[in-house]
């Protein structure tokens, strides 16, 4: 029964026709510009090479002045010293997969330098801290 109704509906919709039955009241032409044409005209007015140069200059300015928000301000060293560095991170929460199983439990410790050694990734085991803002 449902199939018959669907078929009848499709047949009735396909035979629909539109007819102009006249004008009721006074009409006026549309006064507004075509919005798509307005956008296209604005895009044609843009000097894309100049815009590209502005974007490049802005990116270079941002890179020159970039400082991570959590960067530690270190004082200048009075003499050269060496320290052992421990980059171990301890998870403050469980990391679960999509099924809810724990992949890494809370308290799991991870040291990226140990991972480098385990996979024989070339790493000189020396970290040098340089303040790029100082002239010296």
Overall mean confidence score, pLDDT: 82
Query: Using DSSP, what is the number of strands?
Result: 4
Instruction: Round the Cα radius of gyration to an integer and report it.
Output: 34 Å
* Contiguous helical run count: 4
Share of β-strand residues: 5-15%
What general outline do the C-alpha atoms trace?
A: flat
The share of residues in helices is 25-40%
Low-confidence stretches: none
- Terminal CA distance reads 88 Å
Helix vs. strand class: mainly alpha
Strand order of the largest sheet: 1-4
Q: Helix-strand pattern, N to C?
A: HHHEEEEH
Keywords:
mainly alpha
Please characterize this protein's 3D structure.
With 136 residues, this protein is mostly helical. Among the domains are: 35-66; 83-136, no CATH class. 35% of the residues lie in helices and 7% in strands. The chain is built from four helices and four strands, in the order H-H-H-E-E-E-E-H. The strands form two sheets. It has a two-stranded antiparallel ribbon with strand order 1-4. Strand 2 (95-96) and strand 3 (102-104) form a beta hairpin. The longest helix is centred in the middle third of the chain and has 17 residues, at 48-64. It starts with a helix and ends in an 18-residue tail after the last helix.
